[in-house]
# Entry
Amino acid sequence: MIIAWRRLLAQHAAAWCALERELSERHDLGPSEFEVLDRMVEAGRDKYRVQELADCVHLSQSALSRLVARLEKAGLVSRDMCPSDRRGVFVCITSEGRARHAAALPTHRAVLSAILPSA
Amino acid sequence: MIIAWRRLLAQHAAAWCALERELSERHDLGPSEFEVLDRMVEAGRDKYRVQELADCVHLSQSALSRLVARLEKAGLVSRDMCPSDRRGVFVCITSEGRARHAAALPTHRAVLSAILPSA
DNA sequence: AGACAATACATGCGTACGCATCTAATGCGC
DNA sequence: GCGCATTAGATGCGTACGCATGTATTGTCT
# Structure
């Protein structure tokens, strides 16, 4: 059981570090940034609440708030007013965000398939 | 394959956060601190080089240097001169370190078995 | 309507990280 | 022995994190 945990730690560390290196060097994206874009593209929807994204990338609400701020500064998402609830924010992926994601996707998948046990 | 990666991320996040909460609240230890002590106790040896520990907990050399400094300040390990190579340091677990590890071990294992798939 | 808890997100603060660099000691070629 | 690359570990610096809190808005209870 500890064996399984250590294997999980090792796989996580190896894959995460490799993703960090490759994605950041080749596409100027961190693994979490990519993961957020990936989720948004995958789901097809175009509006997300901050907390919703936080859940699926396993980060705190505050971390997601800043992550979205970084993505916005990079022009990959926009933060739009939510008319029905003015406390909230809609996070929308931009076309530039889609393009960056599309460019990074092969790198992401390649790193994973190279490092994770293919079984 | 992405499925496997996401499951790995989810398990890692859940277990890591739970360990962080339980170990820190009940034993004043972080997951990495515990992992270092665990490795030292497990191997039976009493002298370790910093880099050696860095490898097995998947942290950078600088992170391990600081981690060892924290453990030393807490009295759980000692940094001893290495007579044959005066650049190096031997990291040695103290009896207090062994005691703290022994106290925390059940918590650590319990958290893991509660969260990781028992399969 | 008015007061008060609850929600959605932003932000101050402290901490741990990695990278690059520094210092000290070692080994290696000549 | 003398210089120079190499190695072990420490440290400055910038970044991202979580927790606690702040701010604005919404819902609820009376």
Chain A has one domain: 2-115. The interface with chain B takes residues 1-2, 4-5, 8-15, 35, 58, 109, 112-113, 116, 118 of chain A (CB under 8 Å). Residues 2-27 of chain A form the longest helix (26 residues).
